[in-house]
Known about the structure:
Blueprint: H1 15-44, E1 53-58, H2 64-71, H3 84-94, E2 98-106, E3 110-117, E4 120-126, E5 129-134, E6 139-143, E7 152-155, E8 159-161, E9 169-170, H4 174-189, E10 194-198, E11 205-209, E12 213-218, H5 223-234, E13 243-248, E14 252-257, H6 260-263, E15 287-290, H7 293-299, E16 313-314
Parallel strand pairs: 1-3, 4-7, 7-10, 12-13
Antiparallel strand pairs: 2-3, 2-16, 4-5, 5-6, 8-9, 10-11, 11-12, 13-14, 14-15
Helix pairs in contact: 2-3, 4-5
Amino acid sequence: xxxxxxxxxxxxxxxxxxxxxxxxxxxxxxxxxxxxxxxxxxxxxxxxxxxxxxxxxxxxxxxxxxxxxxxxxxxxxxxxxxxxxxxxxxxxxxxxxxxxxxxxxxxxxxxxxxxxxxxxxxxxxxxxxxxxxxxxxxxxxxxxxxxxxxxxxxxxxxxxxxxxxxxxxxxxxxxxxxxxxxxxxxxxxxxxxxxxxxxxxxxxxxxxxxxxxxxxxxxxxxxxxxxxxxxxxxxxxxxxxxxxxxxxxxxxxxxxxxxxxxxxxxxxxxxxxxxxxxxxxxxxxxxxxxxxxxxxxxxxxxxxxxxxxxxxxxxx
Length: 316
């Protein structure tokens, strides 16, 4: 009798069948992944991440509750679906003294609103009074009487638009940049002696220091340096006499003694008057104070801090 030998027979799997199974398996995984993501998004935009707390950091006089109303955000709103940029813009548009508005999402259920107060920087002279403006040239108030004390008065800007809450616009667009440059320079110098500025002639801007000095600074270019150089020059002259300072080149100032009757023409109604454009026959002696441009810039170097980024910020 013959011994029976068992043999295992293995069938070779078809290559096509194997590839088809792999494709089906991948499609199944993709489908499951899509379903999971879809369910997650649906839950996050409906049941999860709903607003429970609204934190307001407010530097203006507008009540916190009013700030929240302007934002349009309410308790129960979905945190994911909130448009923080639009909320910030609404607040900025309705709060005149809001210089910068930031709206942040803080998961899982909090919104933080930060409103920074605008800083008044200058009184802009116009036909019926003055416009109080911020560092960004936004109109904060209309002053029909006297200008705001402690701030410079700017003449010769010629505003074409001066509505409260709007940004100042001049009849000449170039004056907008000149105004920003000048006001920023005055703010950085923080010299209380600067009383008013006449920018009627953009190539010969006049700055009044105290009651006895008129400074012809030329153009608005390098305004910070020019103002600080003028301030340093004033320390070397007689405080009881009137002077006219003239910027010469990049690093010199000419000092011209001024007769009282000529100086008094620079009145509160404006630094420059029509008679100032006439040739004067006043004999004056001219002395020049020469200061190294590089040395002065080194002496007055300031550091401007970098601002951090935020989730959504509205600051034109």
